[in-house]
Amino acid sequence: MGSGSSVADEVDLPFQRDELGYPTIHASSLKGAISSISIEATILAYYVFKLIT
């Protein structure tokens, strides 16, 4: 999945844009970010709980 137009020696855009050129976040990207944070928080909570008990 690309977020911009890539040409030799140019950097791809750091964010996604819609067909009108406005910055946007696709639902699948947001879902993946939330899922990742949730998993990391669950693992952290597990180890903290193990340390204090």
What does this structure look like?
It is a single chain. This protein has one domain (1-53). The chain is 49% helix and 8% strand. The chain has one helix and two strands; from the N terminus they run E-E-H. A hairpin with a 5-residue loop joins strand 1 and strand 2 (23-24). The chain is rod-shaped, with a radius of gyration of 18 Å. It starts with 15 loop residues before the first strand and ends with a helix.
Class computed from helices, strands and strand pairing: mainly alpha
Strand content: 5-15%
What's the overall average pLDDT, rounded?
A: 82
For the sheet with most strands, the description reads: 2 strands, antiparallel
Number of separate domains: 1
Please give the count of helices: 1
Q: Approximately how much helix is present in the residues?
A: 40-55%
General shape: rod-shaped
Instruction: Output the strand order for the largest sheet.
Output: 1-2
Give the distance, in angstroms, between the N- and C-terminal Cα atoms.
44 Å
Ordered list of secondary-structure elements with their pairings:
Elements: E1 16-17, E2 23-24, H1 27-52
Antiparallel strand pairs: 1-2
